[in-house]
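Journal club prep — side note

Before the paper discussion, L.F. wants everyone to see what a predicted structure for a comparable chain looks like in token form. Sequence:
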Amino acid sequence: MKTLLLIDANSIIHRCFHAMPPLTSADGRPIQAIYGLTNILLKITREENPEYVAACFDRPEPTFRKKEYSEYKAQRPPTPDGLISQIIEAQTLFRKFGIRVFEKPGFEADDLIATLAEKFGDESDTNVVILTGDLDTLQMVRGKKIVVRAFKKGISETTIYDEQAVLERYGLKPKEMSDYKALVGDTSDNIKGAPGIGPKTAGELVKRFGTIEGMFDNLDKLPEKVREKFQKAETEIKLSKKLVELETKLDVGISGIEELKRIEDRDALKEYFRELGFGTFLKRLENGSGANAKKQSRQGKIFS
């Protein structure tokens, strides 16, 4: 089986930025997020050795969601300059590791991940692992073929969500998560959801009717108080569904998984580490860190 690793670059870089103490390069550039990301990538590439990898980035332009709803993510503070420079630098880091980078104006990293997961997850000889700092891509989970590996704390602990794990946590199937989220809202993205509908009621409604559309098609079957809330907030609820649902049909400019094969130039990576002053990582690279990974326990590994 082939395994395709899809990296939610922005969410992980943000996590690294806040998890690591301030760190600068010899020429004064902030690099703590790059340092944390390098540590993650070294561990993955040396111990897990994924053959196919893609890193997906957000773009600074307004997304289609922002155009649909001007308050989308409006509560978030401006991105610090020191983080912006490292998000840009991270693209160079990924390429040094032989990892192809994707971004598309008007769309988010999650949309690119969803598109790639949909494109290759249906292939009989391919499994997909989504590495991310949040749970927005849970709606893409399919059995054990497409799974999400999310960081729990900082940049060291992760957990794997296959279809059974999503069901155990939320009581819902992954494909139902977008409808559930459209009802309960998402404070991190400033999506309000359905006023007065909490997680318990939302879960019950999704289990019974399946989709937001199914609920509106069966308004007469809803409890009176719930029906009134739906009728008053129909526009808001349907907009929330549009905002939380990931795009899966974007043109990403590739036709086959071989275009995502990771080909690393170790000499170029060494030189890059020297440039950044990453002496510890340089030693790990030169010593072949992770060479004995197959002898180690598979527990907690990305591809376990």
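L.F.'s comment for the group: The CA atoms of residues 197 and 226 lie 8 Å apart. Keep this in mind when we get to the figures.
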